[in-house]
Amino acid sequence: MKKRGIKKVVLMILSGLAVLLILTLVVLFASSGIMKQPLYLQPWERTYSEQFDDPRIRLAAHGLLAANGHNMQPWKIRLDTKDSRVFYLYADSDRLAKQVDPYARQTMISQGTFLEYVQVAGGELGYKTVLELFPDGNYDEQNLIEDMSIKPVAKVTLMKTSPQHSPLYSFIFSPDTNRGPYENTPFTEEQLSQLASINNEDDLTLKIYQDKENMEKLGNYAIKGAIIESSIHRINEESAAIFRANEYQKNKYRYGFSLEGQGTSGVMKHIMQGLITILPSINSEKTTADIFVKSTQTAINHTPAYSMIITKGNTRIEQVKSGMLYSRLVLNAHRLGFVMQPPSQVLEEYPEMKEQYSNIHRGYTNAGSTIQMFFRLGKPTQAFPQTMRRDVMDLMDTEY
């Protein structure tokens, strides 16, 4: 009788724990918004652009899938009201990450990544895209914010032609960044040659490193950059302000950071989102910094190659062209089965990074040259999910 009584008590306790676990998961999933339709992922659907009759909007819908600094998606589109073939791309001054990108260099690179996706999509949809960079002249750097609103980065003219299938087009719909570990298999000479041949700009230099000495040096720069940036309160505050903890926030804002950017998906994503929503303190500044540094170290330990895009100077046109080249590299790397990720902290121009910024430039450039992009290359060991994107109509400047 005593054994039966003990067994009954144990079963009751286990049943109670099971009920508690189920209730806890229900609360976590509800807080995460697991039943909400992820509107922020709709632009990734291959048929998304087909709902728009205007080819300019259809191409812009492809452009917004491009890589961009801190997922701010700093793009604004003005459709020419007199010429239905023309639209203008502006840098959106309301979407600047002023702490990590004080001179808007990364913002301008993001303009280039957008334009390259537009060009690739244009050929597929039957349009030759003619680009004119800064058609109304360069920015007045002393009035940068104001000039961003009145001077376009590019005038884009569409010329109707026969559709030309590009082997790169389908990769527009793949996530542009993979922060996970890569296979440590070195690149072959043929693979290096294929990647190097992508650069057709005389004023841009593309370098790829996989020798032991440079791998160690560049890995150290990536780690030092992560450690420095993660220790700066104002930068952590800027990042925290654009972190979207759950499906409700992601649908509302559709830009910024989320758990997907770290590779978290499926059930675990919703458990973590629920926990962060209910107990935001678990996502404290110190915890986030520690995770960032640790994940950077893991990534560096599993990187077979690094690459750089270097410009002769640091003009806005060079920055935009660097973004265009980066997008071409992303698409071609995906076609070859590789992925990329820029550990870009060491290239950022705020005071605390000045020493490391100067060191890496002294070691890898000539006087006056600028490293616009520094990134990892390799074959992925895990797939990364797609991240938030705004609706293309949110990019349209209705005041024009």
Explained architecture:
The chain is α+β, with helices and mostly antiparallel strands and 400 residues long. The chain folds into 2 domains: 39-172 and 386-395, NADH Oxidase, CATH 3.40.109; 178-378, NADH Oxidase (3-Layer(aba) Sandwich). The protein is built from 12 helices and 8 strands. The strands form 2 sheets. Strands 1-2-4-3 form a 4-stranded antiparallel β-sheet, with helices on both faces. A hairpin with a 6-residue loop joins strand 1 and strand 2. The mean pLDDT is 94.
Q: What is the secondary structure topology, with strand pairs?
A:
Layout: H1 2-32, H2 55-63, E1 75-79, E2 86-91, H3 105-125, E3 127-133, H4 144-150, E4 154-160, H5 189-196, E5 204-209, H6 212-230, H7 233-241, H8 247-253, H9 266-278, H10 285-301, E6 305-311, H11 316-335, E7 339-341, H12 354-364, E8 370-378
Antiparallel strand pairs: 1-2, 2-4, 3-4, 5-6, 6-8, 7-8
Provide the descriptors you would attach to this structure in a database record.
alpha+beta; NADH Oxidase; 2 domains; 12 helices; 43% helix
Provide a quick synopsis of the model.
With 400 residues, the protein is of the alpha+beta class. Helices cover 43% and strands 12% of the residues.
Q: What is the general shape?
A: globular
Q: Which sheet architecture does the biggest sheet show?
A: 4 strands, antiparallel
- Output the helix-strand order: HHEEHEHEHEHHHHHEHEHE
What gap, in angstroms, lies between the N and C termini? 84 Å
Number of domains: 2
Strand order of the largest sheet: 1-2-4-3
From the alpha carbons, calculate the radius of gyration and give it in angstroms: 23 Å
Structural class: alpha+beta
What's the CATH topology label of the largest domain? NADH Oxidase
The number of helical runs is 12
Overall number of strands = 8
Helix content: 40-55%
CATH architecture of the largest domain: 3-Layer(aba) Sandwich
Quaternary status: single chain
CATH superfamily of the largest domain: NADH Oxidase
What is the residue-averaged pLDDT? 94
* CATH C-level class of the largest domain: Alpha Beta
Spans where pLDDT lies below 50 across 5 or more residues:
none
Strand content: 5-15%
